[in-house]
């Protein structure tokens, strides 16, 4: 089954404790992206990757890191989480590396993160 | 640079009522446009998309949207809503209009509540 898998789905952590949210897709998609969803703000893009070893900042990259060492994986790293990073996070992938001209975004189930 | 705005933040309708959700974008050039839906507790999924051609786009579950370039609008419509349409709806467009940069901008979202 074609899917985007995120882990963990739920996490409560404390300020400053490094964490990683994993994202994996099995569709051989070139493009992957991370979003956070907050009430009243919709989805905001954190980072995206057009292909392996190619990453770029979205609208709200501060406090986050990503890497794309393999095509299927795109982990989101919070080196020193803070309470303002409490949010619902979505990973997404798309076939087209040129953006959205031919493809649609496929989303993971979401990871709800709480930072105390 | 693109911005996407959705005017209605919360809409309540009775079953069988007609639906129209507003979406306006700002980019003046060639633009690709999307509507995504997020059912309660689920991830986002694509409802419909516009790339070029017929400005009236049909999507899944009886939804359609009309691209009106002169109004910078891409409103979502459904003639008769069902209780199962209760969800949050997001309009989206690439940062540069056609998606070449890989940045996708989402609107704030509209929560639709359909009363049985």
Description of the molecule:
- The complex is a heterodimer of chains A (116) and B (116).
- Chain A is built from no helices and 11 strands.
- Chain A has strands spanning 4-7, 10-13, 19-25, 31-38, 42-51, 54-57, 65-66, 76-78, 87-94, 106-107, 111-115.
- In chain A, strands 2, 4, 5, 6, 9, 10 and 11 form a 7-stranded mixed β-sheet that branches. In chain A, strands 1-3-8-7 form a 4-stranded antiparallel β-sheet, with no helix packed on it.
- In chain A, β5 (42-51) and β6 form a beta hairpin.
- The N and C termini of chain A lie far apart (36 Å).
- By secondary structure, chain B is an all-beta fold.
- Helix content of chain B is 0%, strand content 48%.
- Chain B has strands at residues 4-5, 10-14, 19-21, 24-25, 33-38, 44-50, 56-58, 64-68, 73-78, 87-94, 104-106, 110-115.
- In chain B, the strands form 3 sheets. In chain B, strands 2, 5, 6, 10, 11 and 12 form a 6-stranded mixed β-sheet that branches. In chain B, strands 3-9-8-7 form a 4-stranded antiparallel β-sheet, with no helix packed on it. In chain B, strands 1-4 form a two-stranded antiparallel ribbon.
- In chain B, a hairpin with a 4-residue loop joins β8 and β9.
- The N and C termini of chain B lie far apart (41 Å).
- Classes of the chains: A mainly beta (116), B mainly beta (116).
Q: In terms of structural class, how would the helical and strand content of chain A be classed?
A: mainly beta
Structure summary, number of beta strands of chain B: 12
Q: Mind telling me the C-alpha Rg of chain A?
A: 13 Å
> How would you sum up the major sheet of chain B?
6 strands, mixed
Q: How many E strands of chain A?
A: 11
Name the overall outline of chain A: globular
In percent terms, what proportion of residues of chain B is strand?
over 45%
Supply the key terms.
heterodimer, A: 116 residues, 7-stranded mixed sheet, 11 strands, B: 116 residues, mainly beta, 4-stranded antiparallel sheet
């Amino acid at each position: 089954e074609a899917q985007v898998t995120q882990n963990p789905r739920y996490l409560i952590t404390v300020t400053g404790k490094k964490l990683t949210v994993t994202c994996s897709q099995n569709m051989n998609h070139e493009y992957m992206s991370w979003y956070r969803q907050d009430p009243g703000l919709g989805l905001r893009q954190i980072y995206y990757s057009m292909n392996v070893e190619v990453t770029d900042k979205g609208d709200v990259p501060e406090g986050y890191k990503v890497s794309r060492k393999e095509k299927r994986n795109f982990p989101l790293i919070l080196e020193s989480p803070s309470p303002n990073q409490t949010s619902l996070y979505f990973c997404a992938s798309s076939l087209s590396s040129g953006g959205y001209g031919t493809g649609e975004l496929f989303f993971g189930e979401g990871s709800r993160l709480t930072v105390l | 640079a693109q911005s996407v705005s959705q005017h209605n933040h919360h809409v309540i309708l009775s079953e069988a009522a007609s639906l129209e959700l507003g979406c306006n974008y700002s980019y003046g050039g060639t633009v690709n446009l999307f509507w995504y839906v997020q059912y309660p507790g689920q991830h986002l999924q694509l409802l419909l998309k516009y790339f070029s051609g017929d400005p009236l786009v049909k999507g899944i579950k009886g939804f359609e949207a009309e691209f009106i370039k002169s109004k910078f609008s891409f409103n979502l419509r459904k003639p008769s809503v069902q209780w199962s349409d209760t969800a949050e709806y997001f309009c989206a467009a690439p940062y540069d209009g056609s998606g070449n940069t890989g940045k996708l901008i989402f609107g704030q979202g509209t929560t639709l509540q359909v009363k049985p």
